[in-house]
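name: query_chain
kind: protein
chains: 1
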Amino acid sequence: MDDRAELARFAELLMRRVRDEAIAACDNLAAGRMSGPDGTRWREATADPAARAAVRELIPDVVDQALFELLNALDNGDLPLGWQRDDGSWADLYDLGRSEMAGWFMVGDGWRAQHSHQRFFDPDDQPG
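structure:
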């Protein structure tokens, strides 16, 4: 069992199935394309174009902060969760991630750049 391959599979699924989906859903809410109570609330909150632009700009940051906190809790052993390997066996995410997942997620060329199709803010990639 190759832990690196399993960690890469975890990272890819987390980025595509959680991060990308959350950002896309929030983008649809901010653009007024969703109905129901959540759609109405977001349309009202983003009625002003400046507010809508600000919300759209910050959506990836909010999603990334939540994912960072999840990964940091896993890294610190505060949230004991398991990962089912391709072969059906289970691995503790604390052991699989070697207490480095939050860092691998946030670093500029890390999991977001490698596996996510959605935008993200990289302070190292800013002019200045």
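note: Strands lie at 82-84, 90-92.
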